[in-house]
Structure formats: C-alpha cells, structure tokens
Amino acid sequence: TVTAVTDGSSVTLKETVVNEPQFTAPDFSTDKLGNNDDILDGKLALWLDAENINGLENSGITDGDAISTWMDLSGNGNDAIASWGSALLKETLGFKSLYFVDVNVAGGNADDAYKLTHTPSEMGIQNSDYEVFMVIQNEDPSPGFVLAGTTIEEYEIHTTIGADKDGIRFVPANSNTSPDDYVDLSLAGQVDSKPVVFNARVNDDIGKLQINGIESTDSVGLARTNDDSEIYIGRRGSTHLYNFNDNISEILIFNDK
Where are the beta strands (DSSP E) in the chain? Predict the structure, then answer.
C-alpha cells in the first residue's frame, strides 16, 4: 500500500507491494509538485485506504462485506459514497482492497461505483496542477475507469488500452490537443493481474503518467481543466460503459494549493 505520513505541511509517501511485481519504491516529489523526490509539498485532498475503510481500522467490517461509504482519511471529509452497487472488501490477495464489479464482465445486479463528496474546485484540482496515486490490480479485459469526472474526458484514468491489460491511460482534460489528449503507458507482464502503484499527474499544465516508478515517454499539454463536474471511482461519466472490474486498494490525490 501507499502510506501517507503528514506533518500538516507536507506528506511523505511510502510504498509496500505485497505480491509481484517486486520493485524499488520510486521517489515522487519535493520542491515542486511533479518532481521526483521523497516529499510531496502539495496538499492532501483525498486519501482512501482499504486497510482503514471506516476510519476505525476496519473494525466491524469483514471480508466480503459491501462498502457503502469509503471514508476519506485526509481530514477533508471527501468520502466516497456508493452511487450504484457497492464494492466488496477483499482480503484474499495478500492485501486489503475493494473489489469492483462491472456487470458486463462479471455479471451481477449492479455496477460498483462511488462518487466523491467534493467537486474538483473544492478539492483544489480545477484549473490547477495535481497528482493522483493509486494501488490497484487490474484483470479487466476491456477499458475500466478507476477515476473519471462526470463530463467525458475530464480527470479520467482507465486500465486496459484496447485489449492491452498491461496498459493504463490518463485523460486529464478534453483539450483536443494534437495528436491526442491522453497519456498511455504499457509495461508488458507487469500490470495484468498484478498489484501496481501508478501516478497520474498534471505538472505545469502537462499530463504525465508513471507505473511502478517507470515514467511514460508520452505526455500531453493543456492538461489543466476548468471542469467542475462530480468525480467518480469505478465508472465513466454518467454511463454504464467501461466500469472498472477488479481491485482498488488505495487512492491519494494531492493539489498544488
């Protein structure tokens, strides 16, 4: 998992990945949001951790329980509230996670998705640089959105590019930047069915992506956005298309305020 230790002005990130792949935890950021080092000077806007879903170290929650509220540990009250189906606590992977179901992939009665309590402007990421860190495990055979605004192509991160389950795509803003408005990164044999840590960020209005400490050679400009639509975990916009199907263990979002 990614552990955030804060002294009120900065946050230190530490990583522990239980299963493969084994890798050296990357340094992330220090003097400037987006640069590589040990400390993130941005403000923590969201912290969701499957090890502590309810703020009580999961007291009263057991493996397989449906989670209606995923509590924000940042102190901002930016809880993730179940908006369709409720993901299930899963403890059988060697680490705790929330298991999301896309009915088009796994069947069931409802797609699992959560809406963040705060809008992008309230989180301090509208028209601004920001960073997203996630610990996930992807087995989705089609694109599955782990994060997305209600407006299409805003704040979007999805696993699986086409049929490539080792790929992750970041679409920070619907900017129509030539030749595209997204960043792709695929690491053969390192993402599909494995727990990974990735970092999607907007730094100086440039969108960038990193998986397991490996930086994409791709980037996209005009990545800041004025969009202030609600942000969801596990689904794209207001549709039932491309819902995420697999495990999310931890999410952190930092703004540059």
Answer: 2-6, 11-15, 39-40, 43-49, 69-70, 80-82, 88-90, 97-100, 114-116, 130-138, 144-149, 156-161, 164-171, 183-186, 195-203, 206-211, 214-215, 231-233, 246-255
Q: pTM to 2 decimals?
A: 0.84
**Measured between alpha carbons, how far is 180 from 195 in angstroms, rounded to an integer?**
28
Phi then psi for residue 103, to 5 deg, are: -60, -25
Q: How many CB atoms lie within 10 A of CB 160?
A: 25
In 95-161, DSSP assigns E strands to 97-100, 114-116, 130-138, 144-149, 156-161
Q: How far apart are CA 247 and CA 170, in angstroms?
A: 18
Quickly count: other Cβ atoms within 10 Å of residue 70's Cβ.
Answer: 24
Instruction: List pLDDT tens digits, range 194-239.
Output: 999 999 999 999 999 999 999 999 999 999 999 999 999 998 877 7
Cis ω for the linkage preceding 141 (within 30 of 0): no
Q: Are 137 and 97 in contact (CB under 8 A)?
A: yes
Alpha-helical regions (H) of the chain: 103-106, 120-123
Kindly compute the dihedral angle of the four CA atoms of residues 214, 43, 61, 87, in this order, to the nearest 10 degrees. -60
Q: Which amino acid is at 89?
A: L
